[in-house]
Design goal:
With 394 residues, the chain is of the alpha+beta class. Helices cover 37% and strands 25% of the residues.
Length: 394
Amino acid sequence: MTGPTGRAQWRDALATLVEAGHLTGPAELGHLLAEAVAPTGAEVVLYLVDYEQRALRPVPPGRGGPEPVDGSDAGHAFAAGRPVAGPPAWLPVVNGTERLGVLRVTPPAGADPDALLAGARLVAGMAGHLITAKNHYGDDLQRIRRSGPMTPAADLLWRLLPPLTFANQRMVITASLEPCYDVGGDAFDYAVDGDVARLSIYDGVGKGMRAALTTAAAIGTSRAQRIAGADLAARAAAVDRMLLGEFTDSRFVTAVLAELSLNDGRLRYVNAGHPPPVLLRAGRAVRTLDDGNRTPLGVPADPPTVAETTLEPGDRLLLYTDGVTEARDPAGVQFGLDRLVDLVESVGETDLPAPETLRRLSHAVIDHQNGPPRDDATLVLLEWSAAAAHRAVP
């Protein structure tokens, strides 16, 4: 379909999604998209990325086979955050900058490619909002995204986490969490309010549900204090009191709590027994942030000294848990901090969106082990860069 009529039909499809979406559940979302677009003559199929971010799966199942993220047109649209013209065309589906999947669009005969992509981008954008909204009301989309059973501990933590990626005009935060279906004590959190970005990473002692409950309690306490306006030291002290008061079996959590002023780059942080963050500048690691140290959360400590440093525009801050650097290959060789830094630097040279950089880093850690991870491995990357933020937008 070409010309003004074709463009109007795509706008009509968008209106249909807005209006019909009110009474659509998760199970019907794929059908709604197809029916809304049908008057344009195009055929669309929605694909969601699995938790491992290795395959894109059709919604509903049966409307095609999975598409690999690596080595396919669908995967290129997802990874690069850019449409692939096709045919069929593939368009990234995001909510804000949170990568959710792709939309496959098969055009009618004689369609204007530019008009097709322009219209399909509107539908893909609305699909991202609908997925996020409807995901809370049923299990169908969760089932599609899971390629295996998820432990109760992992399910608990995943439901506590913020989206894996967020960006505004000045920065982007992105994270990864492995093993997706069996994570226990690792987690991350962030909040971006006005001119301040607050982020944290956690590693609860132990395995399974015991570790998940410890970390969940720490996140909930720290988050509640953050919302109430507490500073970094007060948040850490509140988690101490909670863990000491609620548990009698010496539970603790290592963590980094940090906040970045987006106006002047001032970074303040507390390190509670956790691996130190890595600061990257001009694409190269320049140092680790070794100050602001105290005991792990839940271990009695004097009030911590809040460390302070200044970032420059374009800097990146990498946080990680020890499951990343201590991951071992079959010969017992650790992944190590040097290897992690080398990969961050080399992948950073490709000018990929930040979430794709982290996806590749996370997979490198998993592939290094050549088998199930022995420990949780979490990565959080913050880029204080308008250019990086815009690369995260389709």
